[in-house]
Structure formats: structure tokens, C-alpha cells
Design goal:
Order of helices and strands: EEEHEHEHEEHEHEEH
Structural class: alpha+beta
Number of strands: 10
Distance between the termini: 61 Å
Largest sheet: 5 strands, mixed
Amino acid sequence: MEVQESVSMPLLGEYAPAFHADTTRGKINFPKDYEGKWVVLFSHPADFTPVCTSEIATFAAMQDEFSALNTELVGLSVDSGNSHVAWLKEIQDKIRFELYNGQEINFPIIADIKMDVARKYGMVQPPMSDTKAVRAVFVIDPQGKIRTIFYYPQTTGRNFEEIKRVVQALQVTDKYGVATPANWRPGKDVLVSAPADMDALREWTNKKGAGASCQDWFFCTEESPEILHS
């Protein structure tokens, strides 16, 4: 029975592993260069491949939306910098896909030929491939802590609206001390803690007003704080 190489992965709540790297936009010192910013760090298996092309194009089309959320994009694959540059030019010149219509691709993509960064982030998973990174996404907060992790197989493109939604949810929960329910979208009700004692719960609900509702002590909602505080 073949023994698989163990993979070390960072955990939610840990500080993002630090590294220096060459990118298509010059050298970066990560995460120090991004202090005070949210970051979506993502990997793709290989340049000049169809799923990866659709994803880079989509990130380029949505870059302004992420920028509006104080969020920077940083990509990675184990290809060379020259390969990245040639591929990005081909995408910009020739590929049109959904929202992408030739926008400049000006977020950095790391040239991780030795797989040093990919291994730090658990992006190289031998059961899938020991020569390519899987599709990984790390959402990192302004303090440099990992807040969300996604891993996808090589054949499945990511849902970029979901990545954006997660950033929005994290920003709302951090700012207002609430939680977001299943399928939450910006502007929708959020989840809040309420007293377990029924008399105190009724008093809490009355104080909160029409925007708050408790179906039971463990399931209370209120209007989006972005609306309440606008």
C-alpha cells in the first residue's frame, strides 16, 4: 500500500504563513505588504488551461468590486513569471468570458516554480497532483489572519460571487459583532445573540423594535446593521 506524503495546511484563525516571492507585478513581502487590507490569496493549477483562464478573467472583471471592499487579489501557480506574463497577454487579447471583456489583469500572480509558497499553504496535494497546485482560496484579514479556506479540484471552477460574499460577511460580522445565516447576502437579516430567559427575551425584543425577531431563544434575527446604521 502506497503511503501518501503528508500535507501541512494552515488553519483558520492562524496568521498567514509569511513569504517573499516574485510576481507579475514585482516582488512582494506577504502578508506584510498588505497590512490593513483584506486579501484573497488564490492558486491555480497551471497557466494556459481552460478552467484557470476562466477564473483569472473573472477575477480581472471583478477586481474593482473587490477593491471597493478594501480587498486585494494575489494569485499563484507553479509556472514561471515569463509563462504568467505570456498567458495574461493572451487572455487580455483573445479571451472574452461572461463579465470579462479584455480588462487589464493587474493583480500580482506569484511565480512559485519551487512550490515553496504552495507547500506552506497546503496547495500541493499529492493524491491530486504532486507537480501542480490545487485550486485554493484563502481569505486573509487586515491583521494577517486566515479567516476562510476553500479547496477545489482541478476540474471545477470557483464561484466568485461566493468568494466576494464571504468577504462581505466577514466584514459585517467583524464590524457589528453579529453572525450571518445560510445563504446570507448583503442587506439581508443577520443573526444576533439574545437572552435565554423568556422574560428578558421579550424585553430584549421590545427594545430592539420591529426590526428584530426571535423564533426561539437560540434563533434571533435583526435587520442588516448596514441598513440600521446607514
